[in-house]
């Protein structure tokens, strides 16, 4: 850690995440798995027919793995250091590859001894070893990754990342089996966006910490709006394609309007809705308000152009959707005075101190990854179910990554990737939001969650995401 620790950071080192008792005396039992897309067989012949594995009571068959490598991939998310802490506690020797997949390909690493890991327990960020967005795809990259793993005699490699990163884990697992490399590859679900979720994966770590951080700021802005009674705050929220973050923050703070991209409204429809709410509030003497905008809204608006990344995806973070909507609303409003303010909440939520929920969840995911490598499993992603229940009731499973994949067009060509999960318009979180949002439009029903709490009663410290 760079610089002296604050009193709160030091105090968080004393927190010991609770884990299910099965980790002390449990074994994996074969469980049913989702059938993969049949066209994937030619790409993943050795991992195509994998089963899932559920942790159940029993006596372990194998000794802990001797040497394991770990890397972060993609954007930071609170809790990542606790995945590493759990691996450090559960394996013989741990090495961390620096700055994501680049470190694996270039053989750039550091030894993660207990003393090195100790100051990072329950801390935010990925700064212990850094992260990156490189994908291991070319034959040269795959060969270099294999040579690094052979050189270090790794029993396992743990990739902590989102949908693209865990797709990469599946590719590496298949390649290592093809090349008779004994290193097993296990994925851990990470992303604040919340779009790496399905029937098999309930949630990714980092989502709870990020949304609670954003909700605090939104609550503060809402209180300012009700105090100054002068400004309309258009708040764009990180979240790439899906609107999970916006939905969670809306349930937590009850803004006047929260746009959900998955509803598929056109730009004129969105503008009409906003103008209607603003004018009705003005008629009630309220010339202020709070409007939440998902970053990925731009992907759902037909014919909206913008910069694209090397994969051909619209770079939604570079599109100032808040300013776009402010400009369009201004053209339609019939008010003499209107004072909008634009905000973007993104990086503020990625490296905060993890909530108790994320600290526990990430540590359990790390324990599960260590046990998977202990049992010589590969091509699987860690999954924990029943997260809204007590930790002892959490169900720990390893799910075949190939079973989560579909074909998606990238740069005009179909590519196998883990499917992103959008907001379910028939799901309970969204339908609950729909029932309430009409009341929030003219009424000031704002909630002010305040900062993340680490001390006090469980009702303050151990809450779970509302969308669970």
End-to-end span in angstroms? 33 Å
Q: Count the E strands.
A: 15
Please give the count of helices: 14
Instruction: Supply Rg.
Output: 23 Å
Judged by helices, strands and strand pairing, the structural class is alpha/beta
Residues in helices, as a percent range: 25-40%
Oligomer: single chain
Low-confidence residue ranges: none
Task: Describe the sheet with the most strands.
Answer: 9 strands, mixed
Output the strand order for the largest sheet: 1-2-13-12-7-6-3-4-5
Order of helices and strands: HEEEHEHEHHEHEHEHEHEHHEHEEEEHH
What is the global morphology?
Answer: globular
Average residue-wise pLDDT: 95
Q: Can you describe this structure?
A:
The chain is 34% helix and 18% strand. It is of the alpha/beta class and 468 residues long. Strands 1-2-13-12-7-6-3-4-5 form a 9-stranded mixed beta sheet, with helices on both faces. The protein has a 4-stranded parallel beta sheet with strand order 9-10-8-11, sandwiched between helices. The chain is globular.
């Amino acid at each position: 850690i760079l610089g002296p620790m604050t009193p709160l950071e030091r105090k968080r080192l004393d927190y010991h995440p609770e884990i299910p008792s099965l980790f002390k005396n449990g074994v994996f039992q074969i469980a049913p798995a989702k059938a993969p897309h049949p066209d994937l067989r030619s790409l993943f012949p050795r991992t195509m027919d994998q089963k899932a594995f559920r942790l159940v009571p029993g006596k372990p068959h194998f000794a802990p793995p001797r040497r394991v490598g770990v890397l972060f991939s993609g954007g930071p998310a609170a809790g990542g250091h606790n995945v590493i802490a759990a691996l450090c506690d559960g394996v013989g020797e741990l090495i961390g590859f620096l700055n994501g997949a680049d470190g694996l390909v270039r053989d750039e690493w550091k030894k993660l001894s207990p003393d090195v890991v100790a100051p990072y327990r329950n801390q935010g960020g990925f700064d212990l070893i850094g992260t990156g967005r490189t994908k291991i795809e070319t034959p040269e990259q795959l060969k270099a990754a294999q040579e690094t793993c052979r050189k270090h005699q790794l029993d396992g490699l743990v990739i902590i990342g989102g949908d693209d990163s865990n797709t990469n884990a599946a590719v590496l697992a298949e390649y290592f089996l093809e090349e008779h490399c004994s290193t097993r590859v296990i994925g851990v679900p990470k992303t604040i966006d919340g779009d790496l979720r399905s029937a098999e994966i309930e949630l990714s770590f980092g989502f709870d910490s990020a949304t609670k951080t954003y909700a605090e700021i939104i609550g503060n802005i809402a209180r300012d709006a009700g105090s100054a009674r002068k400004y309309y705050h258009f708040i764009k929220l990180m979240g790439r394609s899906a609107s999970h973050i916006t939905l969670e923050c809306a349930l937590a703070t009850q803004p006047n309007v929260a746009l959900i991209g998955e509803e598929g409204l056109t730009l004129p429809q969105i503008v009409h809705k906003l103008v209607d709410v603003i004018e009705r509030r003005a008629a009630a003497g309220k010339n202020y308000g709070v409007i939440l905008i998902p970053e990925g809204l731009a992907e759902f608006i037909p014919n909206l152009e913008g910069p694209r990344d090397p994969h051909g995806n619209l770079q939604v973070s570079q599109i100032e959707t808040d300013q776009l909507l402010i400009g369009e609303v201004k053209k339609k409003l019939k008010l003499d005075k209107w004072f909008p303010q634009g905000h973007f909440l993104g990086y503020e939520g990625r490296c905060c101190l993890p909530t108790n929920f994320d600290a526990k969840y990430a540590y359990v995911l790390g324990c599960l990854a260590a046990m998977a490598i202990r049992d010589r499993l590969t091509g699987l992603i860690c999954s924990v179910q029943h997260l809204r229940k007590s930790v002892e009731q959490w169900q720990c499973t390893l799910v075949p990554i190939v079973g989560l994949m579909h074909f998606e067009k990238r740069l005009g060509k179909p590519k196998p990737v883990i499917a992103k999960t959008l907001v379910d318009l028939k799901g309970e979180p969204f339908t609950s939001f729909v029932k309430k949002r009409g009341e929030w439009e003219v009424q000031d029903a704002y909630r002010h969650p305040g900062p993340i709490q680490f001390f006090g009663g469980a009702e303050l410290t151990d809450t779970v995401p509302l969308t669970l």
